[in-house]
């Protein structure tokens, strides 16, 4: 194996790799500090923490396959203990997450799977949205929750939506998340079949402990794919960052509508809003709030209905 020089610690990084001379590629995601920081934004129940941690690793792996400068958004809508969750990863590997859950989610075992958290498989959906951010069209793939594990769902998404045969292994201890993505490149010939079968079998045999205990990408790949000639690219840093700002909060309040904002001002004399991702509190004075509608003085300007799930960021 050839490894990039100066490999950093196996933390908060995404490392892409290729199997030389074969049509197999992959990526390893390791989220430590950033995973803890994201999960610390809200008092998530243990089962939801684990699922969010896995989805954060999955989002970083999926983002590694993108070729545009946009965002990847994984969104769950369910009717079970978890009503909604969102995990985002942009091209710079900035990650954030949020969720809404019922009280009964608190008492579920930490190992409760995503499908159970989401409730009815008939009405629950995992949507994976690619937002190019440059004016290009949104792409959205919908995955039913027939499979229980996040890894299986992401594999299913890649195989059906992207039509790339893939293996995904995810692991978390509730604080850290690690993930392995292995893909067979499109157009691979029959000569690559054997290499893919061996690599896919090794990935499938990988345990959570294998991923969590590995000292680094090179050691992990060397131990599990000993016969492969692997080229490991320079890792890219992943981090927790939220794109919320006073401007975005102002835009959200505009969508809420002047009548609604006037009602809040009449009651409280100011408007408070909390970013549902990072929990940052924003407070607008009456003058600041009224200035949002300065160009449209009609009392019913904007939409009256609050967006589902609270104020967008
Ligand atoms: Zn925020």
Characterise this structure.
It is elongated and about 70 Å long. Helices cover 30% and strands 27% of the residues. Helix 8 packs across helix 9. It has 10 helices and 14 strands. The N terminus and C terminus are likely disordered. It has 2 domains: 228 residues, Hsp33 domain; 69 residues, Alpha-Beta Complex (CBS domain Like), CATH 3.90.1280.10. By secondary structure, the protein is α+β, with helices and mostly antiparallel strands. The strands form 3 sheets. Strands 1, 2, 8, 9, 10 and 11 form a 6-stranded antiparallel beta sheet that branches. A 6-stranded mixed beta sheet has the order 7-6-3-4-5-12, with helices on one face. Bound molecules: zinc ion. The site of zinc ion has 7 residues, from loops.
